[in-house]
Amino acid sequence: MAHEDVGAPAPFAAPAEGSLVLYRGATLIDGTGGAARPATSIVVDGDRIRTVAPDGEISVALLAEAEVVDLQGTFVVPGLIDSHQHIATPPNRPVAEAALRRQVYGGVTAIRDMADDLRHVADLARSTLVGEIPGPDIHYAALTAGPGFFDDPRTWQVSQGAVPGQVPWMQAITEETDLPLAVARSAGTYATAVKIYADLPGPLVSAITAEAHRQGLGVWAHAAVFPASPSEVVEAGVDSVSHAHLLVHEFAGRPLTTYKDKPPVDRERFLAGDHPGMAGLFARMRERGTVLDATNTLWDWLADDADTPEEKTRARENAELSAALTAQAFRAGVEISTGTDYETAPGHPHPSVHDELVFLVERCGIPAVQAIRSATLVGARSMGAEESMGTVAEAKLANFVVLTADPLTDIRNLRTVTTVVKRGLRLHRSEFSPESTATTNPAGATRATGSADATTNPEGTNG
After folding, report:
1. Residue 1: per-residue pLDDT
2. According to the model, what pLDDT value does residue 455 have?
3. 250 and 231 in contact (C-beta within 8 Å)?
4. Residue 49 bridge partners (DSSP)
5. What confidence score (pLDDT) does residue 457 get?
6. What is the signed CA dihedral for 57, 59, 64, 70, rounded to 10 degrees?
7. What is the Rg, in whole angstroms, of the alpha carbon atoms belonging to the chain?
8. What DSSP line would sit under 422-462, residue for residue?
9. Parallel, antiparallel, or unpaired: how do β-strands 20-28 and 37-45 relate?
10. Which has the closest alpha carbon to 220: 323, 112, 124?
């Protein structure tokens, strides 16, 4: 060709196949929930893990062939996964890029975006995948809800230039909807899943779920969809449910109606963590393999950000409720993922998933090794990506984090990041400055989120 345009630079691209790196001598916590493995080597070829083995089993030939990185005295965990993020409500490229940079340099190698302006998210996902900007891999959902939901102001923020409910990434669904076409439109956004949000009855939730699965998409839903109850959502066969606090609506004193008309909740019934009805619901979730995306620390974030004492009290109460329900779910064998539904403020040194992990350990009583599993293997399951990520294992993506201190003795040691390997590319924490990611959001928010305003929604956020 006489002329060919040059693409954008990709300084954060994965290394090419054949680029061998041997990480040697670390104590590996592999994400399976098993015991730590001291003196372990990880051989990376391009963007994939070739071998995970004791140091003594690495051949002399491989030692001579590969670049050797000495990790003696360090600890390695799989790349962390935040299973509930919103990076484009409303779209703001500088804010989103700053959040993505903080996440990946803080050990987060993948996130699940739970419905946003997918025109914006798709470009960010491509940019982090090919290495134009630093950031985690982004798996995202196209939203479905009943028509009554689409006067929510957030739906207009993510549909600028079009009509909410009538765009492929945010569709209004009724009994008359051509579901195969609607799901195909969702898939056309390159979404990983359909998100079932609000104002849909149980039979329609089941129909959407079946069609999405038939077309190869995951299904991520709110724990209560209104009027669909939590048990109806679980029985529909969704892959994950979000927001632990919504589960109590299974036991509401009146029939569920709409997202905006949530019945009052008697929290005291659930705080002991032994509610028999909830035990039955959790047993069914365990049987069906439904992941609980609990979003516990969202409430702490909202309490800190509250404008009134009443809002602060309500958020603290919901945090207490969420902790009790998450702990009961874990004891029942439900898989818990580490979704947050918010991001820490510009200039903060660490992404929000670190706080969610501390919450799981210190307020839900989950052992550190299982909390790490929640942030890795279960996070990968929540987005249908278990085959390629979530554990440090042969043939999986080379996504892992090097720490100076043992996270099994103190979960806060996950913040002692020195190096993040994402798709085989080494990112050194020393190259990251919190101040360099700080940017101004014209709307005044500290992060782009799909969460509703707790002031206008008495039961809190449901992003």
Report:
1. 54
2. 30
3. yes
4. 44
5. 39
6. 0
7. 22
8. ETTEEEEGGG--HHHH----TT--SS---PPPTTT-TT---
9. antiparallel
10. 112
Question: Is residue 120 helix, strand or coil?
Answer: helix
Closest to 71 in 3D by CA, of 29, 18, 11:
29
Q: How far apart are CA 175 and CA 161, in angstroms?
A: 27
How many CB atoms are closer than 10 A to CB 176?
5
Alpha-carbon gap, residue 240 to 296, rounded angstroms: 15
pLDDT confidence of residue 180:
98
Q: List, in order of start, the domains of the chain with CATH numbers.
A: 20-77+393-437 (2.30.40.10)
Whole-prediction pTM: 0.95
Residue numbers of the chain with a pLDDT score lower than 50: 440-462
One-letter amino acid of 31: G
Contact 349, 452 (CB under 8 A): no
Answer whether 186's CB lies under 8 Å from 194's CB: yes
The pLDDT, as a whole number, for residue 2 is: 60
Q: Two tokens at 392?
A: 């440090």
Amino acid letter for position 455: T
* DSSP code for 268: G
- For residues 391 and 380, give the distance between their C-alpha atoms in angstroms, rounded to a whole number: 9
Say how far residue 386 (Cα) sits from the centre of its chain.
Answer: 13
Residue type, 169: W
Question: What backbone phi and psi angles, to 5 degrees, belong to 120?
Answer: -75, -45
84 membership: H or E segment, kind and range? strand 80-85
